[in-house]
Design goal:
Layout: E1 2-6, E2 15-16, E3 20-24, E4 36-39, H1 42-51, E5 60-63, H2 66-75, E6 79-81, H3 88-99, E7 103-109, H4 116-122, E8 126-137, E9 148-152, H5 155-164, E10 172-175, H6 178-182, E11 190-191, H7 197-208
Parallel strand pairs: 1-2, 1-9, 4-5, 4-7, 5-6, 7-8, 9-10, 10-11
Antiparallel strand pairs: 3-8
Helix pairs in contact: 1-2
EC number: 4.2.1.75
GO biological process, one term: uroporphyrinogen III biosynthetic process
Domain Tetrapyrrole biosynthesis uroporphyrinogen III synthase: 30-201
Length: 214
């Protein structure tokens, strides 16, 4: 069975199936007005880079996921914290006490799956949100080799797939996390042991080559 990954990350023996493109928005903000910056994706960091505003590298960064944190570090930020799991909910639970009363800037997508913004406000965080990018559906005409294994890394990737294709009864659908799984409502799906693309790919490889399982 062929493995399709609905993400740009490259893995040997895995075909990338891209059904969206990112549209970045122009914005302007004074980072010195804030105590902390909240980033939930690499695209938010890219948007900040494209905006060409003055960066405050002493600003505290709260990033969801190691790749987002690494991108922020490459940009020059020094004080970066990440939650133990790459979820907005986990970020809130683990850092809510230190964020309480802080003036925070949340650079986000037009559509978000988590309630991180609402949770922060309910926890007395002075939060400003700026929509800095949008994921836009990109139709695809690639003929798929089904049945196959599909890895969905976000709710949007699942929804875009269902706009363009229909799962075969013998397809195996793997979701990165619970929010992505909800977008696959009505279909059987599998979750990896941890919310990372590598863990999903490892699981897909086990389904492809079951004799390799311990």
């Amino acid at each position: 069975m062929k493995i399709y990954l609905l993400n740009e990350t490259k893995f040997e023996g895995v075909e990338n199936l891209i059904l969206n493109e990112v549209k970045f928005f122009d914005f302007n903000v004074n980072l010195e007005d804030f105590d902390a910056l909240i980033l939930t994706s690499k695209n938010a960091v890219k948007a900040l880079e494209k905006a060409k505003i003055k960066l405050d590298f002493d600003l505290k960064i709260y990033a969801v996921g190691e790749k987002t944190a690494k991108k922020a570090q490459q940009l020059g930020f020094k004080h970066i914290k990440i939650p133990s799991k790459a979820y907005g909910k986990t970020l809130f639970e683990e850092f809510k006490e230190e964020l309480k009363g802080q003036k925070c800037l949340y650079l986000r997508a037009k559509n978000i799956a988590s309630n991180l913004n609402e949770d922060l406000r309910d926890n007395a965080v002075d939060l400003k949100e700026i929509i800095v990018y949008e994921n836009v559906f990109k139709p695809c005409k690639i003929a798929l080799c089904q049945p196959a294994i599909f890895i969905f890394t976000s709710p949007l990737s699942a929804l875009n797939f269902l706009k363009n294709y229909h799962p075969h009864p013998k397809d195996k659908l793997i979701a990165l996390g619970q929010s992505t799984a909800k977008a696959l409502k009505g279909f059987d799906y599998h979750l990896a042991k941890e919310p990372s693309i590598k863990a999903c790919v490892d699981l897909a490889r086990l389904y492809k080559n079951p004799l390799q399982q311990d």
